[in-house]
């Protein structure tokens, strides 16, 4: 995929106003495990930076940085085995960041147990993912990428819980978890 192709498909998902409107509806039956309702203000544990440059490096530099599994997922659009990720057991508050470039992608407050064996979220942080159609299987799927380094993260389906009805099915090996009481690492440059 060329950079031009990626950005043709790249659009911000979900649109922040839509998500905020959905959350404000208060009909949440999500995996929010605290007693507090999910509100727009509480949705983001670590906010993503307001602006950021794209991140590129050579294939060899990616291979040097990433494990074979993470390279396959992020740079070759691979998929890990189900139930392979230790992130499935992550119950702390915090943020899931792109293993390729450290961009924050998901808040723990949108994580839920989908029963699929992959870390699942009902929304990403606003403006950090781009999508494109994946036609590798018989049924086309929508895959999504980190908007900054174009690393492949997973696929989004329309069978998720309230308030969005979406399921972001993510490869755990493409993410790193940062607990809420730790500082986010700087974006890779
Ligand atoms: Zn990234």
Number of domains: 1
Instruction: Using the CA coordinates, give the radius of gyration.
Output: 16 Å
Query: How widely separated are the two ends?
Result: 22 Å
Low-confidence stretches: 1-34
CATH level-3 fold name: Metal Binding Protein, Guanine Nucleotide Exchange Factor, Chain A
Series of H and E elements:
HHHHEEEEEEEEE
**Oligomeric nature of the chains:** single chain
Structural class: alpha+beta
| CATH class descriptor name | Mainly Beta
Shape: globular
Strand proportion, as a percent range, falls in 15-25%
How would you name the CATH homologous superfamily? Peptide methionine sulfoxide reductase
Task: Report helical residue fraction.
Answer: 10-25%
For the residues shown, what is the average pLDDT?
Answer: 83
List the total number of helices.
Answer: 4
Describe this entry's structure for a reader:
This protein has 189 residues and is an alpha+beta fold. It has one domain (3-19, 58-179): Peptide methionine sulfoxide reductase (Metal Binding Protein, Guanine Nucleotide Exchange Factor, Chain A). 17% of the residues lie in helices and 21% in strands. The protein contains four helices and nine strands; from the N terminus they run H-H-H-H-E-E-E-E-E-E-E-E-E. The protein has helices at residues 3-9, 16-24, 59-65, 68-76, and strands spanning 94-98, 104-107, 111-112, 120-121, 129-134, 141-146, 152-157, 167-170, 175-179. The strands form two sheets. Strands 3-4-8-7-6-5 form a six-stranded antiparallel sheet. Strands 2-1-9 form a three-stranded antiparallel sheet, with no helix packed on it. The radius of gyration is 16 Å and the shape is globular. The two termini are 22 Å apart. Residues 1-34 have low confidence and may be disordered. It binds zinc ion. Zinc ion is lined by residues 98, 100-101, 103, 146, 148-149, 151.
């Amino acid at each position: 995929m060329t950079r031009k192709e990626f950005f043709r498909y790249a659009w911000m998902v979900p649109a922040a106003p839509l998500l905020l409107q959905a959350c404000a509806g208060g009909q949440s039956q999500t995996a929010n495990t605290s007693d507090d309702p999910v509100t727009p203000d509480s949705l983001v544990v670590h906010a993503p930076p307001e602006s950021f440059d794209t991140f590129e490096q050579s294939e060899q530099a990616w291979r040097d940085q990433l494990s074979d599994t993470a390279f396959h997922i992020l740079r070759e659009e691979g998929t890990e085995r189900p139930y392979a990720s230790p992130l499935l057991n992550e119950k702390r508050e915090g943020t899931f960041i792109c293993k390729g470039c450290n961009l924050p992608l998901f808040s723990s407050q949108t994580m839920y147990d989908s029963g699929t064996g992959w870390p699942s979220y009902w929304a990403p942080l606003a403006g950090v993912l781009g999508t494109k159609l994946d036609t590798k299987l018989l049924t086309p799927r929508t895959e999504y990428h980190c908007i900054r380094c174009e690393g492949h993260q997973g696929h989004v389906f329309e069978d998720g819980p309230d308030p969005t009805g979406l399921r972001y099915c993510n490869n755990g090996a493409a993410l790193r978890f940062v607990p809420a009481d730790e500082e986010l690492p700087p974006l890779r440059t």
